[in-house]
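Database export, one record per block. Field names are fixed; values are copied verbatim from the stored entry.
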Amino acid sequence: MLITNRKIKISLLLAGLAICTATCILVDKELSYYGRCLFPHGKILNYFEVKNMGSFSASFPDCVGLQDDGLPVIAKGSVINGYNGIIVDTIISYGFNDSVVVAQFVSAEKDEYYYIDTPFSYQPIIIPSGSISGKYPTEAFRLTKWVEGVNCAPLILVNIRNLSLLLSVLILIGLIGWVIRNKSLFTK
């Protein structure tokens, strides 16, 4: 009976470890769209990746930006050439499908625009946000994913990821401690 109880406890701990680890990784993958991931998850479209443009100064808060091969494509402070030097102040949201990335941003003049870019294009298309009024961006641009509020990741996702990571570590420490205390079970 004692061995059965041990097997059940170990099985439950291993199942808990697997569930907590899987939850942490899946939630962290969703947070990668906000530039707030702990683990590298690759790029969207295999061309663009999301980066949290951190700042050491309180006057320049964190800003999520899109990058192509390590170079910023659109981020706070970017100047959009060919469009009267529009300067990006804040990225509000962005979306993508298999051939295009669309970012909604506010300029330094407080006007809202959509930035439309395809991989390896040398000139993005900029259109005012009001030009697609009445349509949601996923409909207007045929996007598969639209990420709202990229500068503010949902706190619930961050908390779930952190809690599941903490539980995974605690369960792993408990399993290692149990193995060390009961090493005589493995030496027979």
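Remark 1: The chain has two domains: 2-32+157-185, 40-152.
Remark 2: Residues 56-60 have pLDDT under 50 and may be disordered.
End of record.
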